[in-house]
Amino acid sequence: MASASSSLVLFAADSSSSARLTSFNTNNKLPNGVVQFKRLISPQFGLQKPKTIMTHVSNPLSYCVASMATEASAKVIDGKSVAKDIQNEITAEISRMKSEIGVVPGLAVILVGDRKDSATYVRNKKKSCESVGIKSYEVCLPQDCREEEVLEHISSFNNDPAVHGILVQLPLPSHMNEQSILNAVCIEKDVDGFHPLNIGRLAMRGREPLFVPCTPKGCIELLHRYNVDIKGKNAVVIGRSNIVGMPAALLLQREDATVSIVHSKTKNPQEITKQADIIIAAVGQPNMVRGSWIKPGAVLIDVGINPVEDSTRPRGYRLVGDICYEEACKIASAITPVPGGVGPMTIAMLLSNTLTSAKRIHNFS
Ligand SMILES: NC(=O)C1=CN([C@@H]2O[C@H](COP(=O)(O)OP(=O)(O)OC[C@H]3O[C@@H](n4cnc5c(N)ncnc54)[C@H](OP(=O)(O)O)[C@@H]3O)[C@@H](O)[C@H]2O)C=CC1
Ligand SMILES: Nc1nc(=O)c2c([nH]1)NC[C@@H]1CN(c3ccc(C(=O)N[C@@H](CCC(=O)O)C(=O)O)cc3)C=[N+]21
Ligand SMILES: [Mg+2]
Questions:
Q1: Could you report the predicted ipTM of this complex, rounded to two decimals?
Q2: In what residue span(s) does the Tetrahydrofolate dehydrogenase/cyclohydrolase NAD(P)-binding domain sit (predicted)?
């Protein structure tokens, strides 16, 4: 055997390491138990260079590479820390704006009904607004209120010069027409990016939306801040909702990825995800994406926020993503955790969109 080249490494598989090696989808089994596979991990993360490179092997079966295999572990994409950095940038910009033109950005949030998770999100948004210097305005309406009431509040926020962003917390009660409510938010204040005109512009080449939806924008921002190349890569989005999957696919396409969308009617989704260099999972199914669905070295963005019962936790549940983290982190090159991944980025992007809106309305740069 000649010396190992930079991108191909030959490993000997003995009885103790073969189990791990086969979990890496090693198609190219060589005779004598030698398994050949490419570097598992993309070099940009630097951390997971193979530890064992054999330049000369007389009896492959006598070598064990378990040390390398067991250390292969994805880089954690720390959304919480990136979100904190972004919030610091926003805080500085807001204080500059306030001192130079005396304007404080304002965000209005409309919450209808008594869903506990919605109430928690709205509370967190309010706290984050306060911490960066955005003034927040909150309206809470009962579950059984009329659609007209919601529309009236939207209209008054549309006309309120202190308000630069309006967010209607979703989902709305089922007796309301979500589309006509989202349509009523003036596009200049549509910091969620859910107005059909903003979505339409996102979908059109050569057009720019005024705002990009926060969760997909946060996913792309994480890829940028971790220097993940998107151009020309195979990206798979799992889920096609208006608020996450569909705009995430549009954004990836704008970044010159080759994009596939997997949804509930897709046949053999794992055959599609297995080709992906980048996966964005936004399904709402705990641990749906298994290790065997993932191409070695892929970058994984897990949007899913799924409560699963856990009596050892004070709240009686814990949150898990749509990707089986324990399996995926052994195969991917990088992965977002849940919690602490995309969730905090969604809030950071909302604050960023609100600042952008205030700057645009007041012609401040
Ligand atoms: N981190 C964050 O900031 C945010 C997290 N979330 C979380 O992200 C997840 C998705 O949210 P959201 O987009 O609103 O969810 P939706 O329920 O609106 O959409 C789910 C999508 O997943 C698809 N889907 C459902 N089951 C399967 C399956 N078995 N195989 C393949 N595709 C499937 C659906 O397909 P079809 O279209 O065919 O029905 C649909 O397109 C949830 O866990 C939610 O809590 C949401 C928003 C923000
Ligand atoms: N008009 C509208 N805009 C939204 O952006 C919107 C919405 N409606 N409806 C619901 C979804 C969901 N969503 C989340 C935001 C932050 C976290 C978040 O911060 N999560 C923390 C965990 C929070 C916890 O511990 O409960 C984390 O992942 O680390 C999660 C989910 C925004 N949404
Ligand atoms: Mg939804």
A1: 0.98
A2: 213-360
